[in-house]
What we know:
By secondary structure, the protein is of the alpha/beta class. It is built from 14 helices and 7 strands. Helix 2 links the parallel strand 1 and strand 2. About 45% of the residues are buried. The model has no long low-confidence stretch (mean pLDDT about 95).
Amino acid sequence: MHIPVMLAEVLEQLAPRPGGRYVDATIDGGGHARAVLDASAPDGRVLGLDRDPTILTTLRSSMADAIDAARLLTVQTSFADLGPVLSAHRFAPVDGILFDLGLSSFHLDASGRGFSFARDEPLDMRFDSTDAELDSAADILASRSADELTALLRTYGEERFASRIARTIVARRRTAPLRTTSELLAAIEQSLPPQIRWRARRDAARVFQALRIAANDELAAVTAALPQALAALAPGGRLVVIAFHSLEDRLVKTFFRERQRAGELRILTRKPLQPRDVEIAANPRAASAKLRAAERT
């Protein structure tokens, strides 16, 4: 089930109003989009993007009423292409844009693409598994050198034992490529010092995160999307970003500060907003969320 993260904070910072035009750049299950449509009734509109065609198929059924009323338009694409999509659909300028970065509960629980090591699944990890331009996680493990894998795991996963894990992966693939989550988990466990192998799943979480970021080129997408989002905003329009990873949050913070110094936007959140304890208790996956918001000047 999709649970929109920090919904009250999103609405407060995005400030949707009747007649406004808004973009949900990561529409997922539609929780944020539905709330924005309700707050901007009767004639506010939302353009929703998602890279995952399976998610959009489900969404188009669950939000058919909004689509039929011409208040919701959905496009299957990466938000890295935000500018061209807005131009193609004549949807700019807009009054607010939301990015809810990271991955969906669907990807972890039901996609079958290897985002989680809780089940034995193929190591795909692409949000759009039909995208031939992206390497799957298995392809990355099979093709990168030990040094490249070490750098990937350190940069995207901040993994202490990155070098040991990378060397184990390269050694094991000489016999057979790593194709499933259980095979990767076994390689991670083998790489750790014996006295800490009992906590291998902590390291595995960081390794899986790093591979997912690499497979989807997520940081490059954020870097490409933020300037396009700012350019699409009308004066007074709001840009709201929820990040779950320190590298993503750092990109957003740096972009906001640079553009504020340039006089292009005003930061609304002096420090990032974080979920309240009651939300974390109900949805533990929200715990690492950080929300930043800014307004175009």
